[in-house]
Specification:
By secondary structure, the chain is α/β, with parallel strands linked by helices. It is built from 22 helices and 13 strands. The strands form two sheets. A seven-stranded mixed beta sheet has the order 2-8-7-6-5-3-4, sandwiched between helices. α5 packs across α16 and α6 packs parallel to α11. The longest helix is centred in the first third of the chain and has 25 residues.
Length: 612
């Protein structure tokens, strides 16, 4: 697969192909309209088209669209360019872009089969393909497209919440299935064991749901606590509010110096919860944190669950892989087999995806991605590292029977005698109702053209990871910048787990954290788009973030010491401002372009430091 043929390109190099295919697809749509009862008399006649108000109306359409085009060109950010190194956006895959535009012409609504005969099937197929990439059994799993990662995460926690109450509901309807079991035992059923019971009571599930959280509300149950790392996305705080779990039941787990979940702190806090007579609902591991791009130790979370299950306590495990989930394609072959470690390292080098000298992936990252197959659900966003148009998030569940505990069947989309349509009635057992079929078509097309494996998506994403590792190494090797009579140092936060690089500058000899923050804010001002300016005015664009004591405790101290900032400054200021570059473009290695964009970025830094 040649990924250069997949994108429109930084300079629209593939525009001729894109335009030809797009024109062809529009013609196909026109033929489709005309071939539906072609003998019907045309509703819009030539006489209509010649009327003055008809002509002026179309002129108004044209003028308004030109106005929109002008606004978009003036204010949109150049996601397509290797010079854009800001947020988690990049150029789109042409097959996905074209499929999206084509499908929008037909405007399918994936809420139900009859509103989207083609694209609902595609969405369910995409769900299975993503499940296979994650490592789930395709015959047992279930997945679908969402509008984004937040909705996907809410759906996962919704499932986990309802699932927790099912053993108690079964006790009321089918007490024979849980005979002799205490409430404590029922509260600590593993998700797998609960779903085994659900499969046994399919015919009574509607009655059982009346006695679950679904029927009686959260007040009737001790739902338990949700454990998340300090690096979590802020939407997790929204979710416990929306689902009635409560902010006080969101337990924040410390992170280590490498900004991954601290498994020892997780174990300690779970044990404290048990000792206090409270319960655990779920543990959330993040793969591709939105700030640092780090990967939590999923394998250790899975091992910890087994350890607690041996002592009578279980919980749901969810991976928030909204950003990093697609990276698993780097680890699997075309048959969805997880590639042995040494073979993977050899293949990455032999196929010129990631140079051997970068030592990627480290074993802890490899083990984390391998353990996807042992969790209960995974959020994964095609509109991030799938290079798909918005809105295209996704959620995948290990066991498709989770649908049974949250399904609704509205009369207008499910009629007696059409039970065979049940798997296609997405709106009846997902969080969203009406939803675009175009997003599903875009993901399906990209999967078919590119492939969810090492030689497909893995190649594109691998190049972006190599670009991040290259930038990290350049910051180590070219750490000093001389500007007039001043000397500055750049220090990366940590070696990238994925393709995000975080870093900060400090003037050599400066020990003031406040002054360092001002310096980095000034650099960001030169490299961050401000409304009213033309994007063309910027040589490069980056993003930024702040680490506060409230969120990270003293973890940033290790980073600050590298920048010669004493601990006393951290205690006083309690915030460090950090620059951030997301390397999604595959054009930042030297394999596919003669322009060394990263060296040009360093030249840009030098110019800015001279101006400050």
């Amino acid at each position: 697969m040649n990924f250069e043929a997949l994108f429109l390109g930084p300079q629209a190099e593939n525009h001729k192909f894109f335009k030809e295919i797009l024109n062809f697809l529009i013609d196909e749509h026109v033929h489709w309209r005309r071939n539906f009862h072609p003998n019907d008399i045309q509703s819009i006649t030539l006489q209509d088209q010649g009327q003055e108000d008809f002509i002026t109306t179309q002129q108004k359409i044209q003028e308004t669209l030109l106005q929109l085009s002008s606004a978009l060109k003036q204010s949109s950010l150049p996601w397509h360019s290797p010079r854009y190194l800001g947020h988690m956006v990049s150029d789109l895959l042409m097959p996905a872009h074209l499929a999206y535009i084509l499908t929008m012409l037909y405007n399918p609504n994936n809420v139900a089969w009859e509103a989207s005969p083609a694209t609902t099937k595609l969405e369910l197929q995409v769900g299975i393909e993503l499940a296979q990439m994650i490592g789930f059994d395709k015959d047992k799993a279930f997945g679908h497209i969402t509008s984004g990662g937040t909705v996907a995460n809410i759906e996962a926690l919704w499932i986990a919440r309802n699932l927790k109450s099912i053993p108690f509901a079964i006790k009321k309807v089918r007490p024979d299935l849980v005979e002799g079991m205490s409430d404590k035992m029922l509260m600590n059923f593993s998700p797998r064991k609960t779903l085994e019971l659900v499969r046994m009571v399919d015919e009574q599930i509607d009655e059982i749901k009346k006695y679950s959280v679904r029927g009686e509300g959260v007040k009737s149950f001790e739902i338990g606590k949700v454990f998340v790392p300090g690096t979590r996305h802020y939407s997790w705080d929204k979710m416990v509010d929306i689902l009635g779990i409560g902010a006080n039941n969101l337990v924040v787990v410390n992170v280590t110096d490498n900004y991954r979940m601290d498994i020892n702190d997780l174990e300690k806090k779970i044990q404290e919860t048990i000792d206090n007579g409270e319960h655990i609902l779920a543990v959330v591991g993040v793969v591709g944190t939105t700030e640092e791009g780090t990967v939590d130790p999923i394998d250790e979370i899975v091992a910890l669950r087994k350890k607690f299950e041996a002592k009578g306590t279980s919980f749901y495990i969810h991976i928030d892989g909204a950003y990093g989930g697609y990276i698993r394609s780097l680890f699997i072959d075309e048959s969805y087999n997880f590639i042995p470690y040494n073979e993977l390292r050899h293949s990455l080098h032999e196929k010129k995806i990631i140079e051997e000298s970068y030592n990627y992936p480290p074993m802890e990252i490899y083990n984390s991605f391998k353990s996807f197959e042992d969790v209960d659900s995974v959020t994964i966003d095609p509109h991030k590292l799938g290079y798909i148009p918005y809105q295209a998030g996704a959620i995948v569940f290990r066991d498709k029977h989770v649908r049974n505990i949250i399904s609704y069947f509205a009369p207008y989309i499910f009629e007696e005698g059409n039970e065979y349509q049940n798997p296609l009635l997405l709106g009846s057992y997902i969080l969203e109702g009406s939803k675009s079929g175009a997003a599903a078509a875009a993901v399906w097309t990209a999967n078919k053209v590119v492939g969810l494996h090492l030689d497909g998506y893995g190649k594109i994403i691998g190049e972006s990871i190599e670009g991040a590792l290259r930038l990290y190494n350049m910051m180590i090797e070219r750490s000093e910048f001389k500007a007039k009579d001043k000397l500055y140092r750049i220090v990366p936060l940590l070696k990238p787990d994925t393709n995000i690089v975080m870093y900060a500058f400090n003037e050599v000899g400066n020990e003031s954290l406040e002054e360092m923050n001002i310096l980095n804010r000034n650099i960001k001002e030169k490299l961050y788009y401000k409304p009213g300016k033309f994007a063309q005015q910027y040589e490069f664009m980056i993003s930024s973030t702040s680490f506060s004591f409230d969120d990270y405790k003293d973890i940033p101290l290790h980073f600050l010491k590298k920048l010669s900032i004493p601990e006393s400054e951290w205690k006083k200021t309690q915030e460090v401002f950090i620059l951030r570059s997301t390397i999604m473009s595959p054009y930042l290695t030297l394999d596919f372009t003669e322009i060394d964009y990263l060296s040009k970025l360093f030249e840009c830094f030098e110019k800015i430091l001279l101006e400050i």
